[in-house]
């Protein structure tokens, strides 16, 4: 595609995008402004209507006050309720509801079944106790209650606002209510007219933007064609003549007075043509004296070739000797690698022996701990045996006392004569039992003494074994340390061998 069409196309696309973006942003802003105005108008209407409800309630109170001045209270109340019914029948923006301060519903055309009953339990569709709200606001001098309620019995619930005020003359809570839909309906036509005008103005604005964009595209295209595209065509034509035409380097491209990029390119091409022209002239002048230099260069090259042949022969001799040295080096490397392999195997054996000794040392240590624990338990057993001997001594003392008591009982039985004979038999049996007990205690004491002696012997032997195991453990530690030193020396030796082999091979 021609460069001129590309430039004009880019300009057209850019200005079209700018125009569309401006139109879109303008439409969005006008839509936001319209929405803000509509919401502001709705809010103003709601505020004015709520104030009108309060004002209307006070006017109605003044109107029904005349009934109570000229009529009995009951008749005046009937007239007031009839007046409220007439207001509701007009189906304007205001709907009346009446209760007393105890919450009893006196007038409610939307819910006629609640009339004459307490409305404190009545709830709207949005769970608002609206009668409670009437009473609460009336007690503080008047106020607003918001809830949802149908306009007629069986109708669809709609949001509404109620202003309640206590009338001291009629002793009733007079409530003036109004539905949001009725409040907004009055200004709905105005909002429609505003929307229509905004849409119309937006369409006019978009057309104006489109005309401005088209005019800018036309003006920009004309400027680009005469200021850029036509001059580029001339520059391309001149370069084409330089390359494919008569190749006349004496001709120059005509530059413009405007010092822009195209003029700089034209000047650069002219300067390049001048440089080429001067270079060709210098080449012609220097080619005349280059023949003598060529002869000298030929002689120098011949001498250089002869020297190169001699050096080639020397290099061949050096390469032959290098091959011989390489064979010897390879043999030495193989022997060194075999030695390294043997050292590595010895190192592995030493490491295995070291691990075995470490394992043996662990087992010896564990056996030493077991011997120590067993010696401790044997010593505790010896102490327990000594405790048993103490208990046997106590039992022996009890047997001695029992024998003494039996002797005293026999003496007393002898004194009693014939009457104490049976008691004397019992005393003899008790004395015999004490004697047998002392004999058994002596045998048990002897046996326990033997056991204690054997336990002490075992404990002494186990202590001796524990000391020997500790000595063996020390010897094992020394052996393990020597194996570790041997392993470190082997590691160092293997490392030096590897380093030597690496240096040798690298050499």
From TrEMBL:
<dbReference type="GO" id="GO:0007165">
    <property type="term" value="P:signal transduction"/>
</dbReference>
<dbReference type="Pfam" id="PF00015">
    <property type="entry name" value="MCPsignal"/>
</dbReference>
<keyword id="KW-0472">Membrane</keyword>
<protein>
    <submittedName>
        <fullName>Methyl-accepting chemotaxis protein</fullName>
    </submittedName>
</protein>
<comment type="similarity">
    <text>Belongs to the methyl-accepting chemotaxis (MCP) protein family.</text>
</comment>
<keyword id="KW-1003">Cell membrane</keyword>
<feature type="domain" description="Methyl-accepting transducer">
    <location>
        <begin position="286"/>
        <end position="507"/>
    </location>
</feature>
<keyword id="KW-0807">Transducer</keyword>
<dbReference type="InterPro" id="IPR004090">
    <property type="entry name" value="Chemotax_Me-accpt_rcpt"/>
</dbReference>
<keyword id="KW-0812">Transmembrane</keyword>
<keyword id="KW-1133">Transmembrane helix</keyword>
<dbReference type="GO" id="GO:0004888">
    <property type="term" value="F:transmembrane signaling receptor activity"/>
</dbReference>
<dbReference type="GO" id="GO:0006935">
    <property type="term" value="P:chemotaxis"/>
</dbReference>
<dbReference type="Pfam" id="PF00672">
    <property type="entry name" value="HAMP"/>
</dbReference>
<dbReference type="InterPro" id="IPR033480">
    <property type="entry name" value="sCache_2"/>
</dbReference>
<dbReference type="InterPro" id="IPR004089">
    <property type="entry name" value="MCPsignal_dom"/>
</dbReference>
<dbReference type="Pfam" id="PF17200">
    <property type="entry name" value="sCache_2"/>
</dbReference>
<feature type="transmembrane region" description="Helical">
    <location>
        <begin position="205"/>
        <end position="228"/>
    </location>
</feature>
<feature type="domain" description="HAMP">
    <location>
        <begin position="226"/>
        <end position="281"/>
    </location>
</feature>
<dbReference type="GO" id="GO:0005886">
    <property type="term" value="C:plasma membrane"/>
</dbReference>
<dbReference type="InterPro" id="IPR003660">
    <property type="entry name" value="HAMP_dom"/>
</dbReference>
């Amino acid at each position: 595609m021609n460069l001129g069409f590309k430039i004009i196309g880019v300009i057209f696309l850019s200005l079209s995008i700018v125009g569309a973006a401006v139109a879109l942003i303008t439409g969005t802003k006008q839509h936001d402004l319209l929405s803000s105005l509509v919401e502001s108008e709705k809010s103003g209407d709601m505020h004015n209507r709520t104030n009108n409800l309060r004002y209307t309630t006070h006017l109605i109170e003044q109107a029904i006050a005349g009934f109570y001045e000229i009529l009995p209270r009951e008749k005046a109340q009937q007239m007031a309720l009839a007046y409220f019914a007439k207001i509701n029948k007009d189906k304007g923006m205001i709907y009346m509801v009446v209760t007393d301060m105890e919450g009893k519903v006196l007038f409610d055309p939307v819910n006629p079944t609640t009339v004459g009953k307490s409305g404190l339990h009545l709830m709207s569709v949005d769970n608002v106790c609206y009668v409670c709200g009437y009473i609460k606001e009336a007690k503080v001098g008047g106020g607003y209650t918001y809830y949802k309620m149908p306009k007629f019995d069986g109708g669809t619930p709609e949001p509404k606002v109620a202003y309640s005020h206590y009338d001291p003359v009629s002793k009733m809570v007079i409530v003036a209510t109004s539905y949001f839909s009725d409040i907004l309906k009055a200004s709905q036509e105005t909002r429609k007219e505003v929307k229509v005008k905004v849409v119309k103005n937006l369409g006019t604005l978009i057309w104006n933007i489109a005309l401005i964009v088209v005019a800018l595209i036309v003006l920009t295209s004309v400027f680009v064609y005469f200021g850029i595209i036509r001059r580029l065509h001339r520059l391309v034509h001149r370069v084409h003549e330089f390359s494919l035409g008569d190749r006349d380097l004496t001709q120059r491209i005509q530059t413009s007075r405007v010092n822009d990029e195209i003029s700089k390119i034209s000047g650069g091409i002219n300067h390049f043509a001048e440089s080429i022209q001067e270079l060709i002239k210098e080449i012609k002048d220097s080619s005349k004296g280059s023949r003598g230099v060529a002869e000298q260069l030929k002689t120098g090259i011949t001498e250089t070739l002869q020297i190169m042949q001699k050096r080639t022969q020397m290099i061949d001799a050096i390469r032959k000797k290098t091959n011989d040295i390489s064979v010897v080096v390879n043999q030495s490397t193989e022997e060194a690698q075999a030695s390294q392999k043997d050292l590595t195997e010895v190192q592995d054996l030493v490491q295995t022996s070291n691990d075995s000794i470490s394992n043996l040392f662990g087992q010896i240590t564990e056996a030493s701990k077991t011997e120590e624990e067993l010696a401790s338990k044997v010593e505790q057993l010896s102490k327990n045996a000594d405790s048993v001997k103490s208990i046997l001594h106590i039992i022996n003392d009890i047997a001695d006392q029992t024998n003494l008591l039996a002797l005293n009982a026999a003496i007393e039985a002898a004194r009693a004569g014939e009457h104490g004979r049976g008691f004397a038999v019992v005393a003899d049996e008790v004395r015999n039992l004490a004697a047998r007990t002392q004999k058994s205690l002596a045998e048990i004491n002897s046996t326990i003494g033997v056991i204690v002696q054997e336990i002490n012997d075992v404990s002494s032997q186990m202590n001796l074994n524990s000391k020997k195991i500790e000595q063996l453990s020390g010897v094992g530690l020394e052996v393990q340390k020597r194996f570790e030193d041997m392993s470190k020396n082997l590691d160092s030796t293997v490392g030096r061998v590897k380093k030597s082999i690496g240096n040798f091979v690298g050499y």
